[in-house]
Specification:
Elements lengths: L3 H15 L6 E4 L14 E7 L2 E6 L3 E6 L5 E6 L12 E6 L3 E6 L3 E6 L3 H5 L13 H9 L6 H6 L9 H11 L12 H18 L33 E4 L8 E4 L19
Antiparallel strand pairs: 1-6, 2-3, 3-4, 4-8, 5-7, 6-7, 9-10
Organism: Streptomyces massasporeus
Keywords: DNA damage, DNA repair, DNA-binding, Glycosidase, Hydrolase, Lyase, Metal-binding, Multifunctional enzyme, Zinc, Zinc-finger
Pfam families: Fapy_DNA_glyco (PF01149), H2TH (PF06831)
């Protein structure tokens, strides 16, 4: 699943390829906007907002997309073979004389007035990689429902924008608590560290091709995707179980020694990063 750092990287690639150029190709392959033609308009910028991408275009228009689980934007040079998936998975094509951006498997794609962007992203909490980052507000949002499991509160983009399943598991490990701990039971000293820790992790990885939370080459993550291998700190077997209401698969990893506290029975299935 793309998280805030990977979406930030996607926005930078799209911005570098398209911003300041006039579109010579435009194809939105979703029924509602299939007849929209953006050719002849200049791309002004591509901005990430949490896990959302906002491509702003001359004339007061914004192409809003969200990658969710499987979506991606690929950028190709002239004559380069497109390799992001079969043609029927393409949802958007934006091109200029030098580069073509192709959106694959985009579950959310809509063209809206730039002034209407708050309708698409106004519900989001402070963006860990954005200019609106506010650590005090982010922590207050997380703690406003003290009975809610911390892992679920971290994933709620209304609290803070950019944390996904990987960072949820890694943040909880680094705080020394399980993702099933009620947010209100988070010790005050660890709660105070949470916003800065989350921001540090995403900022450190927004320019990296391979995400790392450990600083160790070849051992990039502390817990996520590592069950049942030994914990890098204490050698206890890492465990995995789903968290949430079951509406989507959310494998959650933890070390039962380094992260004492409430936890479900671990699942037998193995997840990889």
């Amino acid at each position: 699943m793309p998280e805030g750092d990977t979406v930030w990287q996607a926005a930078r690639r799209l911005h570098d390829a398209l911003a300041g150029t006039v579109l010579t190709r435009s194809d939105l392959r979703v029924p509602r906007f299939a007849t929209a033609d953006l050719t002849g308009r200049t791309v002004l910028d591509v901005t990430p907002r949490g896990k959302h991408l906002l491509t702003r275009i001359e004339g007061g228009l914004t192409l809003h997309s969200h990658l969710r689980m499987d979506g991606s934007w690929k950028v190709y040079g002239n004559g380069q073979r497109w390799s992001g998936g079969p043609g029927h998975q393409i949802r958007a094509i934006l091109g200029n004389p030098d580069r073509t951006a192709v959106g694959y498997r985009l579950p959310v794609l809509e063209l809206l007035r730039t002034t209407d962007e708050p309708r698409a992203v106004g519900h989001l909490g402070p963006d860990l990689l954005g200019p609106d980052w506010d650590p005090d507000r982010a922590l207050a949002n997380i703690l406003q429902d003290p009975a809610r499991e911390l892992g679920e509160a971290l994933l709620d983009q209304r609290n803070l924008a950019g944390v996904g399943n990987v960072y949820k598991s890694e943040i909880c490990f680094l705080l020394g608590v399980t993702p099933w701990l009620p947010a209100g039971d988070l010790p005050p000293d660890r709660a105070a560290k949470l916003p800065a820790l989350a921001k540090k992790l995403l900022e450190a990885n927004r320019d990296r091709p391979i995400r790392s939370t450990t600083g160790r080459r070849g051992q990039d993550l502390f817990v996520y995707g590592r069950a049942p291998r030994p914990c890098l700190r204490c050698r206890t077997a890492i465990r995995v179980a789903d968290q949430g209401d079951g509406s989507r698969e959310r494998p959650t990893y933890w070390c039962p020694t380094c992260q004492p506290g409430p936890a479900p029975t671990p699942t037998r299935r193995s997840h990889t990063n």
